[in-house]
Design goal:
3-stranded antiparallel beta sheet; alpha+beta; globular
Length: 175
């Protein structure tokens, strides 16, 4: 006879089997890292072609293995500061401007964005105008500041206010 107790035990067992299947998906390792910038690549935020512009570029490696490319570090932060972006992110990358040329940063110069140092309020232009110059070490960032001025920030210090200040600086320069 099929009793209520047997039904509850059966239902619990089926639920556990279902949860076990879900757990294995979370453990799947998805390889994800920066990739080369191609001539037709467009920025995931503004849609501009990426390769045509100077300054540091950025990429976001998503948990599902996709890579989003950005024409500037500031556009990457625009994307990262959206609440729905954080759960998707596996790792973000930026150009280390201490080891590559400003006018055409190399594909081999990417570093993890969360360990980089950023210089804002500096005069060098990126794809969207004023940008955050990214560096692999604090010493490289300070050497850049000695030549170009600016203000030093860490990854965690870049917020909406910093991005708004960049936008205001761009408006002032174009007027």
């Amino acid at each position: 006879m099929f009793t209520r107790r047997k039904f509850i035990i059966l239902l619990g067992g089926v639920s556990l089997v279902g949860l076990t299947g879900c757990g294995s998906e979370d453990q799947e390792v998805v390889s994800c890292g920066p990739v080369g910038i191609e001539s037709g690549d467009e920025c995931a935020v503004c849609g501009m072609f990426i390769a045509e512009y100077p300054g540091p570029k950025a990429q976001a490696c998503l948990r599902d293995g996709r890579v989003l490319k950005f024409c500037s570090t500031s556009d990457m932060f625009v994307w990262l500061l959206q609440p729905d972006s954080v759960p998707k992110l596996k790792q973000a990358y930026v150009h280390d401007m201490g080891v590559t040329e400003w006018d055409s940063p190399g594909d081999d110069a990417y570093i993890e964005a969360d360990v980089a140092y950023y210089v804002t309020e500096q005069p060098m232009m990126g794809a969207m105008g004023p940008t955050l110059a990214s560096f692999g070490t604090e010493e490289e960032a300070r050497a850049f500041m000695a030549e170009h001025e600016g203000r030093l920030l860490t990854y965690k210090e870049v917020d909406v206010q910093v991005l708004n200040d960049l936008a205001r600086a761009h408006i002032r320069r174009t007027m």
